Amino acid sequence: MKLRIGISCYPTVGGSGVLATELGKLLAERGHEVHFITSSVPFRLDRVYPNIYYHEVDVNQYSVFQYPPYDLTLASKIAEVAKRNQLDLIHVHYAVPHAICAILAKQMIDNKLKIMTTLHGTDITVLGYDPSLREIIRFAIDKSDCVTAVSNNLVEQTKDLVRTNKEIETVYNFIDERVYMKKEVEHLKKHYELSQDEKVVIHISNFRPVKRVCDVVKSFAGIQAKVKSTLLLIGNGPDLPVVRQLVKQLGIDDRVQFLGNQKHIAELLSMSDLMLLLSEKESFGLVALEAMACGVPVIGSNAGGIPEVIVDGETGYVCPVGEIDCVVEKAVSLLTDDEQHNRFSSHSVKRVHQVFHSERVVSHYEQLYNKMLES
Ligand code: GMT
């Protein structure tokens, strides 16, 4: 059955926005009518897509208010779009504020809207520790018609932190396999002055402190002392200056390239031999999945949902948070053993297709939508 689906998320760079947008695109391909209700055009919505509509949440700054009323404007917009387009449901990404806005919108239109909330981590693992927000997060979860989280670990953490009895179903993240695949990039390697005999280690994040990018740099310092290699750092964020300073201090400036935010991630991954994702909090780690789809093994920390994505000793390695020696040892073993690397690389691609395939995940969401609408 064709559904009319609203989607609200933070549209800027970030895993939750990426996931929400890719989901919307694939739902539209399946014939559903998809309405994005966001503060700007989601950055992955980079051309015209049939069945996709965009409604801007235009937040005004009134001098009488100390803060711009984003939440209230979003709630009004969801109500308006839902009524005008007769939406069957709104799928919001984040309990706070987006589920709260949807609950308000639902009340504004006489409760005629089903709400699905997907938890991505930051809303729980950061905000859930704040006693002033815990009650409202629980309210958002309890009042949603269906709640999903992106890993089993996040389901457990939510139950522990927020103390809700609501059923929360794990629906893993996915990537678009037509985009994330190994590509021919010899010309690019030349552009980045990467020689044939050197290995490429990559890290992609928003450089927030939870990503522990300094651990990535320290690990790489150990790796490059044993294996000729270059580190590509992709992204931007608050820790960037500290990371730059550390690179200088360790005397590895000539081995590290800072590339800032990038659009064509699959190409950069296709030049790489290994990804490092050493976060202290990570509900899933979508970048790890993107790497695996391009045949790049990942060494990750044992934080959050990362061990559900990486199979230790098969598609990469899992090391305790902050244990640099473990990362260096595993990385050197992978980068110096071609047979092991090829095996891990093909297991990574296989795992993405078997466990995290977009067909499977989008069908799962569709089933949950239908179940929610029947109830
Ligand atoms: O990782 C971030 O800081 C961004 C954040 C977000 O909300 O966009 O990512 C979260 O959602 C992603 C998509 O589900 C997950 O892959 C990330 O692991 C998760 N980040 C954290 O839990 C820190």
Automatic annotation (TrEMBL):
Molecular-function GO terms, alphabetical: glycosyltransferase activity
Glycosyltransferase subfamily 4-like N-terminal domain span: 13-177
InterPro entries cross-referenced by the UniProt entry: Glyco_trans_1, Glyco_trans_4-like_N, Glycosyltransferase_grp1, Thiol_BshA
Keywords, alphabetical: Transferase
Pfam families: Glyco_transf_4, Glycos_transf_1
GO terms, biological process: bacillithiol biosynthetic process
Superkingdom as given in the UniProt entry: Bacteria
Residue ranges of domain Glycosyl transferase family in the record: 188-347
NCBIfam families per record: thiol_BshA
Name by which UniProt lists this protein: Glycosyltransferase
Species per Swiss-Prot/TrEMBL record: Halalkalibacter hemicellulosilyticusJCM 9152
